[in-house]
């Protein structure tokens, strides 16, 4: 019998078909094996969307500042109270020489209040007085100005251009010392000397509400004297008199049975600066000054 001869291309086709059949069988077995295996746990990382800068419109009103990391105040805590006349910034007039008519001890004279605030925040305030040809002791206050008004550092009573008595205000240690006394006293906030209180009181009144200027309105200021005393002075607005000429008339509440008393008249048109001041009886041991002119 003669052997069957298979063409070469037919043999190749048969080999390919055989390989394909084996592949199908193996693939099916792999699918069956994968289906029977337990599922593996998968962890997914969620990525934040990219940040794209966007131009925002200006807010209609200023936003409240966020509390800092050091602040322990809860976000729902109410805001601090509104600024009151006792805490708002005090305004002081520019440099000027205020000339007064003086009546002291039953004699006429003149007085000059020289106010010199400096650009660096320092100030000098000096009151000179003269009766006839006789110069009376001068008063000088030196210190700094700020949001709270005047902060005196040294007050002196001067004779012949020399300091004879002095009061020193140590703003760092918060102490007041005196050349005429060994006393060293704690310095209250806003303490003044026997000259700077004029301007400080004017600034306090200026910073007050208009209702405060009605009769009964009061202002307080601590004042240090030359002999080692430091007391709180309370001034009260009193009813206007015919000769007040539109000024605010203030009177200090008595400090004791022998207090000579202090009255002053503040002019609203001049920033409530004193245009008249009386201490005690000008016909005896007291004095009175009345504004004549202002040289600025």
From TrEMBL:
Residues 1-23 form the signal peptide. Residues 66-75 have a biased composition (Low complexity). Residues 58-87 are annotated as: Disordered. Keywords: Signal. This is DUF3108 domain-containing protein.
């Amino acid at each position: 019998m003669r052997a069957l001869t298979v063409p070469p291309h037919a043999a190749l086709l048969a080999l390919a078909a055989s390989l394909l059949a084996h592949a199908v069988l193996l693939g099916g077995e792999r699918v069956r094996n994968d289906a029977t295996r337990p599922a593996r746990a998968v962890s997914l990382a969620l990525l934040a969307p990219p940040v794209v800068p966007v131009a925002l419109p200006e807010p209609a009103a200023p936003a409240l500042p966020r509390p800092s990391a050091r602040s322990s105040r809860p976000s729902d805590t109410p805001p601090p109270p509104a600024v009151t006349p006792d805490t708002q910034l005090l305004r002081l007039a520019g440099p000027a020489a205020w000339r007064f008519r003086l009546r002291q001890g039953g004699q006429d004279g003149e007085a000059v209040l020289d106010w010199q605030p400096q650009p660096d925040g320092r100030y000098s305030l000096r009151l000179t007085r003269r009766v006839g040809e006789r110069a009376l002791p001068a008063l000088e206050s030196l210190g700094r100005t700020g949001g709270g008004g005047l902060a005196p550092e040294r007050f002196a009573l001067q004779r012949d251009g020399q300091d004879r008595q002095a009061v020193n205000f140590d703003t760092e240690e918060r102490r007041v010392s005196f050349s005429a006394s060994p006393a060293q006293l704690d310095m209250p906030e806003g303490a003044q000397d026997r000259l700077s209180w004029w301007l400080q009181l004017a600034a306090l009144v200026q910073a007050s509400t208009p209702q405060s200027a009605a009769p009964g309105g009061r202002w307080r200021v601590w004042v240090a004297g030359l002999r080692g005393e430091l007391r709180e002075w309370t001034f009260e607005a009193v009813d206007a008199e015919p000769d007040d000429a539109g000024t605010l008339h203030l009177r200090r509440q008595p400090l004791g049975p022998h207090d000579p008393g202090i009255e002053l008249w503040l002019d609203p048109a001049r920033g409530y600066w004193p245009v008249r001041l009386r201490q005690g009886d000008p016909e005896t041991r007291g004095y009175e000054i009345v504004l004549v002119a202002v040289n600025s």
